[in-house]
Amino acid sequence: MDSSTSWEFTDDRGHLTVTPGHPARVAAYIQAGATLWDHGLRPLGIFGSHHDGEAPDPAKAGDLPLAGLRSFGAGSAVDLDALVAAEPDLVVAVSYGGGQVYGIDPEAAKHLEEQVPVVVLDVGKDRSLSGTRDRFTELARTLRAPHGPAEAELARAEAAVRARTGPDGGPRVLALSAAGPETAYLARPSTWPDLRDLGELGVSLVDPAGGAGANWRTVDWAEAAALEPDVILADVRVNAAPRASLRSHPAWRALEERARIVAWNPEAPCSHRAHARFLDAVAAAL
After folding, report:
1. Which of 42, 65, 96, 169 to pair with 207, CA 20 to 30 A apart?
2. Which of 93, 122, 142 is where one domain is finished?
3. Which H or E run includes 256?
4. Which residues are CB-contacts of 122 (< 8 A; sequence separation ≥ 6)?
């Protein structure tokens, strides 16, 4: 193979992917596609995870132009035949550890890799937020992305957060995902890279100690309200219950009256620009 015309990239599984030419037609998991878009690369299509509905989740999509973008489905409903028929030069997927392609059934992922080059980047709890950004930036550069990372924008947003935390950490911040009118999932900050990043910037994060669950602790709304957070980072993905459906519960109403609510997307695009936008919202709430 002529190395002057081939393209190669070693993904987070340690797999070296080599293609005979530079990939121009890229399909991606929605979060990865949104990240590439922030670097100026438009994917030919996207797919979602088992948590998504029939339509792409706008929260995960970032600034992707969904109206003109092809969706290949989500989770078990991903149409692999349609994806392969679209003739992508490359598929960009994500993993939460162990090298498993997230959002597609294991056998389907194996079948896909037999037909199309697949690059997998780790977005799981064992990687820092900056590490994830850097890996996507590295991939975007090899794909000849027209836009560089928004490093100055992110640095400004980080400084804004630091300026609003004091020696005691400032306002108490609780991250959660609403399971429904009776139940909440409280995030354990140490298992979420973006929450760890906030902690490193000086934000006082509420840690729901005890209980089962590696990433979340399941509680009723009364227990969540008893934590008396000043700011709530509320999951806005489609699998989380919308705020309007919670207002029948007095404990949620008490939380709304007490705390500032910030939209939180645990699967935000892995770009400097997207992370700066989130930090700006947190800084404003603090």
Report:
1. 96
2. 142
3. helix 250-258
4. 12, 94, 95, 96, 97, 132, 135
